[in-house]
Amino acid sequence: xxxxxxxxxxxxxxxxxxxxxxxxxxxxxxxxxxxxxxxxxxxxxxxxxxxxxxxxxxxxxxxxxxxxxxxxxxxxxxxxxxxxxxxxxxxxxxxxxxxxxxxxxxxxxxxxxxxxxxxxxxxxxxxxxxxxxxxxxxxxxxxxxxxxxxxxxxxxxxxxxxxxxxxxxxxxxxxxxxxxxxxxxxxxxxxxxxxxxxxxxxxxxxxxxxxxxxxxxxxxxxxxxxxxxxxxxxxxxxxxxxxxxxxxxxxxxxxxxxxxxxxxxxxxxxxxxxxxxxxxxxxxxxxxxxxxxxxxxxxxxxxxxxxxxxxxxxxxxxxxxxx
Length: 323
Prior knowledge:
- The chain has 323 residues and is mostly helical.
- It has helices at 2-16, 26-43, 52-77, 106-122, 124-131, 145-159, 163-176, 181-193, 197-210, 215-227, 231-244, 249-262, 266-283, 288-304, 308-317; strands spanning 87-89, 92-94.
- Strands 1-2 form a two-stranded antiparallel sheet.
- 35% of the residues are buried.
- Residues 1-24 have low confidence and may be disordered.
């Protein structure tokens, strides 16, 4: 107990300083300041040769630490010496603050999800890390030195947003080594950035000929079809992804967004989004916040159409609390 009180006493001055700010709410200012370390923590995560579940767990550790500090800081900010019980001890006034560290508690989840939503909107490193898919197969990389050097040059150019230049390098890489899956994947991405959608699909299909189980090209083919507004083939692409990785939440998220936001079939969209939402929670993935956002949009549309009861029924059928 003494150790806990000591930590609270030391940190009180830091948190209380935010109460003096005039712009924005105290908690928004607090979260903005605290999130910097968490963003750096996420930026330091290596995604190379890791499955998305492994990366999600490492992200969760960074967010978990931030949520704990944010919970503590928020409670400091809510202290009211005039109303809160003050205990005198050794001539000093102390106020007991209860910090709930139970990760399954509603209180902890509330703080964690607040942190998660904020980071999804404000931490670019988080977005880049969770969208990275560098899990290797036998043919992901190339032993051809010339092809690999073209690939490295392409990655450098893409990081500088020189997409045409990067595409040229990746084209050279796959010409040197047609079995270079990562080069095909990146070529597809560059074509997509350049709005060359048919070429992008062809590049991703070439990657799948090399590695039929490549998750990255399968997922991106579906995205390219959405850019083309070809939602029938986009849904078929997600079905191809599901055949290889049925537990992948991106399958359900993609299907859900197409039905709800593109085809206005809100019930089908909600069914899929509920599955994505639950899977994201299981994986401790920050993408849970995106699924939640789409579910809010669906709720607004269904409520306006007088289908609020059906919305709640679908959530209950998927074991999602409607409160």
